[in-house]
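Researcher: Please generate the 3D structure of the following complex. Treat every line as part of one assembly.
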Amino acid sequence: MIDFSVLQQGLAMLASPWTFLALSAGLAGGILIGALPGLTATMAVAVLAPFTFFMDATIGIPFLLGIYKGAIYGGSIPAILVNTPGTAAAAATAKDGYALTQQGKSRKALELSLYSSVAADFLATLVLIVVAIPLASIAIRFGSPEFALLYLIALTMIATVSGESFLKGMIAAGLGLMVACVGLDPMTGYQRFTFGSTDLLAGVSLIPLLIGMFALSEILMQLTHPPSHSVENSHAGAVEHGGEPLRWAEFWALRPTIIRSTTLGAFLGSLPGLGAEIACWIAYGVARGRSREPEKFGNGSLEGLAAAESGNNAVVPAALIPMTIFGIPGDTITAVLIGALMAQGMMPGPLMIQQNPGFLFGMFLVLLVTNVLLLGFGLLAIRWLKQVTRIPPTVLYPCVMLLCLCGAYAVNSSSFDLLVLVAGGGLGYVMRRTGFPVAPLIIGLLLGPGFESALRQSLVFSNGSLAIFWSRPGSLILLVLLALVIVVMAWRGLTTAGIIKKRFKRLPSPSQKH
Amino acid sequence: MRKPLTNSPLLIGKLLSSLLAFGIVAIGVSFLRIVHGTPPPYGAPGDIGSAAFFPGLVALLVTGLGVVMLLATWRANANVVFERGRTGVALIAFILMLAMALLINVAGIWLVSMLAVPLLAVCFGERRWYVLLALAVIPPTVVIHLFEGVMGIYFPRGMLL
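Model: Done. Output below.
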């Protein structure tokens, strides 16, 4: 039964001029930040999230969604023009995009990138709307055993797929869960690991830690490995920008590639841990495998460019599926979005669907409208944003550091949060230098309280019996899914480490037996 | 001629990885000590209702994984090569950030940001005095006014005011 008050609330959110302004500002800012090499989409959302705490949720969240979408698209502009991806998600775009620029077809490449992004984003948003509502009705029926298993599946997946090492991912997730234990116990209210500090009673401040781990650590990484000015880049100014526009027939011929890459991106985005940076390469690889002209890939293939761009942009709405339904972040950016929603007094997941359905419906509408705006802003960016890619890091990063400092302080007006910010920056830097993925730690920290409550509640209900995790049909299905995830991930990890291959080599072949 | 052992990226990687593994084990063990060293009702990790149950479980997992990491580091085919870079400059920048966080209450936002922003630019290699001067004045003025004027967030003034 359609609840008209929910529709009304959603439409009212969309019709508000402030929402529209915030969305436009977010998109413009996101495209600008995404176009600056070295500034990632996660960094942009983390640094600008504190600005939204002083706005109404109907203004603040569209602003952050605009930044998210804008930054993912904006990363393609320097990738195409100067062979330097603005964000990691645009790495595959650079391969064919820059080759087209070298052939004097930069306009065609930029237009194709924009149209593919908008088409993929629109289709994936429709998937989000279609999938979210039925799944939400299932999620509402979940009890604590199902949630405990769901959190465990998410943590296992994130720990195993977001880095190169299964072990390091698991350790990072474990550390995140340990940090989540700091503060008051969610069930009994006892102080844990606060060491007598009142600043730690509410736990480690999430937003300052996120800003530190994503933005400050990025500054330190840029200092460690300064961006190289390759020969190609230094001659980029000599490349003629412009050329002929994209023809409708060319774009129409690419629709199977765009639809296939969008489907892949949407599927990968809906799985916790797999972000746009992985989706773009998988979509690119699949497109190459199915292409009639695979030899053109890497040399200016329109198919390759369309696949990379539609693959990475389809992730954005899809990553919101686990966030809105289960409160599980699909990637690091949605982890920051969850932090922003929590600061607004909303808890993503089934509770949000029950308590704020109007807001959620409004958010879906905003996501659809963003695509129309992205088209307009993207066309302007193609024309005017070429110069932005030349801002030197000597100017850019000190300004980012100042924004981090002010943003982290603004959350609670506490100088203790600045120490959390710097500690997060140091920790993020050490992790990145030593090959530890940052995402599992952040997501472990976010899911920790929910996971702990669900696990302990389940065990209290069952008097400590683990049978509660397989005695209910829902939890049994999730348990089988968890076992499947563990087997697949363990197989992948052991194959990567070469252990399984070795064992097979030791086994005598059937011909040797006889 | 044999290369000195300390120059081997693999050996440095193994040593660093071992150090990290020790650090992880140390964190896990110290959490376990707190959990087990506190009297009940908090410190009863075996009791589901106790606040120590979950931290005890996680600390045990992290300690175990730390030990596995230590053992895995010294496997013959372990890939633990440490990529070199300008770590010293990053360390200086980190100390600058830490000083900035510690001094904000004493020195105030203006002094801290007017010093920290150009100093970080120096770390990035900026040497032109007029750029450094512009960085000391323009970004702090714009950002602080944005936060204070638009968002109503007031920063510590320190000894200046």
